[in-house]
Amino acid sequence: MTAPLDGIKVLDLSRFIAGPHCTKILGDMGADVLKVEKVGYGDDGRHFPPFQNGESLYGLSLNRNKRSMVLDFRHKDAPAMLIDLARNADVLVENFRPGTMEEMGCGWDVLQAVNPRLVMTRLSGFGQDGPYAMRPGFDGIAQAMSGLMSLAGDPDGPPMLAGTFYVDYMTGMYGANATVAALFARERTGKGQVIDVALLDSAVSVLTTALASQADQNVTLTRTGNRDRYSSPANVFATRNGDYVLIVSGTNPLFARVCTMIEMPELLEDPRFTTVPLRLQNAAEIEAVVQGWCMAHDTDVVIDALNKFGIPACKVATLKDVVENPQLHHRGQLVEINHPVAGKVTMAGVTMQMSDTPLTIRRPPPGLGEHTDEVLAEWLGLDADAVGALKAKRLV
Questions:
Q1: In angstroms, how far is the first alpha carbon of the chain from the final one?
Q2: Which of 41, 204, 310, 344 has its CA 20 to 30 A from that of 71?
Q3: Which domains does the chain have, with CATH numbers?
Q4: Which active-site residues does the annotation give?
Q5: Angle at CA 238, nearest 5°, toward 232 and 239?
Q6: pLDDT tens-digit readout, 187-200
Q7: CA pair distance 229, 104, nearest whole angstrom
Q8: Separation in Å, CA 353 to CA 7, 185, 312, 333, 357
Q9: pTM over 0.70
């Protein structure tokens, strides 16, 4: 056993971000992921900018460790082909609009009948049922509807989206986790099951105490910018040479270290700052003191002093800083792959590190339909003549 999911076959019908991220994780875990894409067009993610030598960096980043075959989903024989592939799969992942698989004649009742051990992982904006199920849903919609946007941004500014599609990625992770759990359950029961993961559900899952504050105490959390909600000083501070540093020092011991570092021990006796609640109540005043000290020093001096006193802090990194980060390179979290068209492509490494069954990048992102012939031979046992007949019908 070279990887945790070695020998597991995943039929990937997903597109955009959440679904492909889910199957990328399964591929990193060792699964044989077969990405089935539209003939002549492929996954929508292949058409997202930015591009490198004509290849979408989105598509490349989300589709390593996969093979690609093409299928005309509108062809009258497409449902039969999908059912045959599902018959030989352990997992099917899809993120079509709810009901699409059923309309194609490939709903759960059909797939379960031909393959009782199949795990069907379904990702969508709002879930497979409920009053919003048929609404179109994307990452930004989930951020807005979940209330996450209302918590991001400056207090006097508008709600803000995050700088990346993190609800999409989080939903993909939930989907992958649930898929692995379903495969584990199958070992006990012999049966597969349906997994229903939604962007809105995933977004709400990280609200934690905000939900109880609202529902049970009628307290509505609002935007605080970069200021910590529950302690101070914990915020972003500018340095003399124009960088920003995040300092998290809201506990009493950490605040004492800050006072020592900036050579102002008298702050410990200031009645405005003697406790965590008092410092939070007077956050603007104590932040002004820390900001004054940071603005009097260059970034390196500030960071060195904070590290010396054991105060949690770091420079707010630019993306240039990130790709040069020695910790990330040491951990293998920035890797280069060689793609036959795009050339050298840098992407995030395999996030999960396992001692006995290490996860690896075994395949570069596939070209559209690159593996159609070999997959039809391996999964369905079709010879060259049979594959040729399918191509003549323009099914594949």
A1: 33
A2: 344
A3: 9-206+326-392 (3.40.50.10540), 234-238+244-315 (3.30.1540.10)
A4: 168
A5: 120
A6: 999 999 999 999 99
A7: 49
A8: 20, 23, 25, 10, 9
A9: yes
